[in-house]
Amino acid sequence: MTPPDASPAPTTEHRPTRFTLVPDDYHVPWAGTAADGRRFFLSDELFVPGRSAYVGLFLWDSSGVFEEIRVDEVGPDDDAERLVASRLAELGGHVLEPVEVEPFTREIDGVTFGWPVDRYDDGTWFIRIEPGDFIAYYAPWDGLEYDT
Fold it and tell me: What is the C-alpha end-to-end distance of the chain, expressed in Å?
């Protein structure tokens, strides 16, 4: 038993600076490399509960350094599939494949988008998608497993 005044055990894990997105048939259908060499992640599942839904295209340079995010708010009369198709067309010929990228966040119209790094009370690091918090990655950051 740990004495009440003892500090928690230090974690050997370090804050992640990179993680891998691996395309799948669930929450990561569009991740890979665009025709121009940039890395990308596209989602039609971004949302702020009770407010808005979004289609977001996240772009990193060819080395995985964040460059930009392009966001479309999905209104009641919008077709998310059409917005996804339009964003995919912007990528030119693209390859769906695992990509290693850096986490980032950006605020657009008061909404945080991106992949923030956070830590649980037990010291475990994680990276989650925002808005919506429907994907969370953990060490070893290989993208093969995530929590939803």
Answer: 33
User: Shortest CA distance to 58 belongs to which of 10, 9, 116, 5?
Assistant: 116
* Sign of CA pseudo-dihedral 134, 139, 141, 143: negative
Q: Which two tokens stand for residue 39?
A: 């890395």
- Does residue 11 carry a pLDDT above 60? no
Give the per-residue pLDDT at 9: 45
Residue type, 116: P
Decide: helix, strand or coil at residue 16: coil
Q: Is the pLDDT of residue 51 over 60?
A: yes
Those residues whose C-beta lies under 8 Å from the C-beta of residue 103, and which sit 6 or more positions away, are: 16, 17, 19, 114, 115, 116, 117, 127
Contacts with 7 (C-beta within 8 Å, 6 or more apart), sequence order: none
Are the beta carbons of 11 and 123 closer than 8 angstroms? Answer: yes
Residue 12 has a pLDDT of 46
Indicate the domain borders of the chain: 19-137
What is the 8-class DSSP label of residue 39? Answer: E
Contact yes or no for 55/41 (Cβ under 8 A): no
Does residue 126 contact residue 138 with C-beta atoms inside 8 Å? Answer: yes
